[in-house]
Structure prediction request, 82 residues.
Amino acid sequence: MIGRVLQRDRLLEAGFDGRPVFAGDDAVAVLLDPFHDHRNAFIFATNPNGAEFDALLTDEGREFNIDWRGVWEVRARRTEDG
Prediction:
């Protein structure tokens, strides 16, 4: 089940577990490979609404652990230019 939550003048989307859904929106993601083994990575993603998503990728990206929670903060905003 996917729901939408209105917060003031912006629309946030959330999945059934309260994590954001990025489908249909601009987003940027950063993958960090701290061991430089090309098999594991931490992923951090956000969109212009400031939604945060993180996960742990293992086994060359075949395993996707969304229960992993990183400690990070994002600030985003929309401007007249985009």
The CA atoms of residues 6 and 12 lie 6 Å apart.
